[in-house]
Amino acid sequence: MKADIxxxxxxxxxxxxxSDFKFLTRSTMAGGTKDTVKWEDGNEYPLVxxxxxxxxxxxxTGKHKIVDTSGRIDKFQRRYAR
Length: 82
Prior knowledge:
By secondary structure, this protein is an alpha+beta fold.
């Protein structure tokens, strides 16, 4: 294997902004974020904000919830309106 080609794999806190749910896991996504959060264990971890997780997804919650962040439904209806 080639050396120094793999991304840094470390602990990251993901924050679901829709349901205010946070969870700690390991990921390579922390390189692009400058936000940090102090976790329950007293350590500070990089924070990645997401819009949908298992706490807010209709499949896992059983609740139908429309999440349209960029107006995709309106854009589709305007484009294909007859």
